[in-house]
Design goal:
Strand 18, helix 14 (398-407) and strand 19 (412-415) form a beta-alpha-beta unit. This protein has a seven-stranded mixed β-sheet, sandwiched between helices. Strands 7-6-5-8-9-21 form a six-stranded mixed β-sheet, sandwiched between helices. It has a three-stranded antiparallel β-sheet with strand order 3-4-22. With 455 residues, it is an alpha/beta fold. It contains 15 helices and 22 strands. Helix 2 (46-62) runs antiparallel to helix 4, helix 2 crosses helix 6 (162-175) and helix 4 crosses helix 15. It has two domains: 4-231 and 433-454, 3-Layer(aba) Sandwich (Aldehyde Dehydrogenase, Chain A, domain 1), CATH 3.40.605.10; 235-415, Aldehyde Dehydrogenase, Chain A, domain 2.
Length: 455
């Protein structure tokens, strides 16, 4: 087992920093501190928690450009997007701070001859495992409702973004949170069972790939620990009747190529009616072949490189497999070998069910276009997936879009806008994509026990 992990700048290969992994004894100490902090933190008032989380948001806002640059040099998020994302995260924190009491406060009831009160109680120490693609937002989107509900947390961040992982703990420390309320841990994946088996760890929270999902889910069940789990998506974008081709192209390319296509809920499969198919393909080709891809610190860069060379090779293989099964290359795919993490924006057309790009998530700048003979077939194709995160519908007829949305079996559906997340709206999808809820009132309540007292 390796004893260290490194933060490496994908752009130039330079090592930013190196961290030692914790051994089991050191890990136990941190978990015990988190448990001790929980015993005190759960007794704090909502007013106190609200004040603390507003301070946390202020800490982020006070030096947002510095923290955004850290995110860019670790996983190549475009610098301007990193700044905007951190500002959005700070506002997400404020929403939870301002609304937690309303959704978690004790509620009295007197109905059907039964009188009592329901109380949302925190559970204890939460163990979280998180990916690299949104190093700050992914973690804080989960940690903030966990902690504001009265729990404490230990988080294993992705091994390629350790600086961001440590910085999140620094946010909490700088805002004045007690030690142990939020704890960043540097460990190997094999140490997860040691954490989950600890009796003071009461819940497990993960976003990751299918193998990680299965492994953690199995461990959670083995030790009878509840879990909130997000897997991946193969999200559709349905093009319905429209008149503004330029507006349609602008929206749809952003749905695919924003963040280099490295978003769980970015659109991957573009389902286009037969009568509009050729125009769509030609329009997308003209737009995508002019996208600027280079240094993520440069304001003119539109598509960021991938997180590392391994990701580029993996996507390259997925595209090759699709082409071998007769998907048509509209924009030529390649890895820019002088910078091995650069994968050029790619369009695959004439995509069919048996191809790799049809039902396997391609986590990068690859657009798969599918031809449909009718709106009904578009709905059928959209629902034909094992991984259901979010769907996007584009069209001029609002009533048609809403009727189509009702027939899509997806948890979140966006009409004429890019898929995203909202602090006040619950995210929780189905099949192999999600287990339980995040965000909104449901996200706050996910990590609590609703205790009923009858009197």
């Amino acid at each position: 087992m390796p004893k260290t992990i490194q933060s490496v700048n994908p752009y130039n290969g330079e090592v930013n920093w190196e961290f030692e992994l914790l051994n089991e004894g050191q890990l136990d100490v941190k978990i015990e501190k988190a448990h001790e902090a929980f015993l005190q933190w759960r007794e704090t008032s909502f007013d106190h928690r609200k004040t603390m989380f507003h301070k946390l948001a202020d800490v982020i806002d006070a030096d947002v450009e510095k923290y955004a640059k850290l995110q860019t040099i670790e996983m190549w998020m475009l610098y301007w997007a990193s700044i905007n994302g951190l500002k959005w995260t700070a506002n997400l924190i404020r929403w939870f701070a301002d609304n937690a009491e309303k959704f978690l406060w004790a509620e009295e009831f007197d109905e059907y001859g039964t009188k009592g009160v329901s109380i949302h109680e925190p559970l204890g120490v939460i163990y979280g495992i998180w990916p690299w693609n949104f190093p700050y937002n992914q973690v804080l989107r989960a940690a903030v409702p966990n902690i504001i509900a009265g729990n404490t947390t230990v988080y294993k961040h992705a091994s390629n973004v350790p600086l961001c992982g440590q910085q999140i703990e620094n946010f909490f420390r700088k805002a004045g949170f007690p030690e142990g309320v939020y704890t960043n841990i540097f460990i190997s994946s094999s140490q997860s069972e040691h954490i989950i088996s600890n009796e003071v760890v009461r819940w497990v929270n993960l976003t990751g790939w299918e193998n990680a999902w299965k492994a953690i889910w199995s461990l959670a069940w083995k030790y009878l620990k509840p879990s909130v789990l997000e897997l991946w998506g193969n999200d559709p974008l349905l093009i319905l009747d429209h008149t503004d081709t330029q507006k349609m192209v602008s929206l749809t390319q952003a749905c695919r190529f924003n963040d280099g296509g490295q978003r769980c809920n970015s659109s991957k499969r573009f389902i286009v009616l037969e009568k509009d198919y050729d125009t769509f393909v030609t329009s997308m080709k003209g737009f995508v072949e002019n996208l600027q891809m280079w240094d993520p610190m440069d304001i003119s860069t539109q598509v960021q490189p991938l997180v590392n060379n391994s990701a580029a090779k993996f996507i390259h293989n997925q595209v090759q497999q699709s082409v071998q099964w007769w998907a048509e290359l509209i924009i030529w795919w390649k890895i820019l070998w002088e910078q091995k993490s650069f994968y050029t924006p790619t369009i695959l057309s004439d995509v069919k069910k048996w191809m790799e790009c049809y039902d396997s998530e391609i986590f990068g700048p690859v657009m798969s276009i599918i031809k449909s003979t009718s709106v009904e077939e578009s709905i059928q194709i959209a629902n034909d997936s094992e991984y259901w995160l979010s769907a996007v519908i584009y069209g001029d007829n609002d009533n048609q879009c809403r009727e189509v949305a009702k027939q899509l079996e997806w948890g979140m559906i966006f009409i004429n806008q890019i898929a995203g997340s909202k602090a006040h709206l619950p995210m929780g999808w189905i099949r192999k994509s999600w287990y339980w809820k995040e965000n909104g009132p449901e996200g706050l309540r996910s990590f609590t026990n609703k205790k009923i007292i009858i009197y």
